[in-house]
Design goal:
By secondary structure, the chain is of the alpha/beta class. The chain has one domain (2-132, 178-200). The chain is 53% helix and 17% strand. A 3-stranded antiparallel sheet has the order 2-3-4. Strands 6-5-8 form a 3-stranded mixed sheet, with no helix packed on it. Strands 1-7 form a two-stranded parallel ribbon. Residues 148-196 have low confidence and may be disordered.
């Protein structure tokens, strides 16, 4: 039997202080969406860097300005994507940090109060992704079992397998499939720990 919590604990660094947070353990659909968003953000960043490097020698000043405007619009979309995920999946353990007398309790609070921290949004996005690490491991097991079942049901080693769903690829299955029987999972509700409060003005 697998015992899981609806959230998992981790930490982020803010203003040279380690802050304990909780991140939702993603469902299959949430995990897939977050994986696609992380990949899209990574590809956009790489493409922008490549375009800027090439722009120094190949573009006119007008074309360069247009490129920068395009990147600015893409950056706004990337920021909106990151904010939506962080606000949906991140909470802050209580009794840790206050800003002007108001306790920071959510992912939204973190971004609103500490959005200028250079790596905060990136660290939070990776923390969210780590919530699906168990799902990825279960997906590998499921994919292996599916391949084994299909092979055993085939008339011979080279013949067609039995009818039914089949994985589209080993790597894809490892990331996509995360299913467990409801009766085999016990969801625990961890009680947030309390601690000293850091006050930031």
């Amino acid at each position: 039997m697998v015992n899981l919590s609806k959230t998992h604990k981790t930490t982020v660094q803010i203003a040279d202080t380690t802050i304990a947070i909780r991140v939702a353990r993603l469902t299959f659909e949430q995990s897939e969406r977050h994986r696609r968003e992380m990949n899209a953000l990574d590809q956009t960043t790489k493409r922008q860097l490549h375009e800027l490097e090439a722009a120094d020698t190949t573009l006119t000043s007008e074309a360069h300005a247009a490129l920068l405007a395009l990147h600015a619009r893409e950056d706004e979309q990337s920021e909106a994507t990151a904010r939506a995920a962080i606000e949906a999946y991140v909470t802050v353990e209580p009794n840790q940090i206050e800003v002007d007398g108001r306790e920071v309790t959510s992912g939204k609070d973190l971004l609103d109060c500490f959005g200028t921290e250079p790596r905060l949004a990136v660290d939070l996005m990776y923390a969210i992704a780590s919530g699906s690490s168990l799902s990825a491991r279960l997906g590998k097991t499921f994919g292996s079992l599916s391949d084994s079942t299909r092979s055993s049901n085939a008339p011979d080693a080279s013949g067609p397998g039995a009818d039914g769903p089949r994985p589209e690829g080993t790597a894809d299955v490892a990331e996509r499939v995360a299913t467990t029987e409801p009766a085999a999972v016990t969801v625990e509700t961890d009680t947030p720990s309390s601690g000293s409060t850091a006050t930031l003005n």
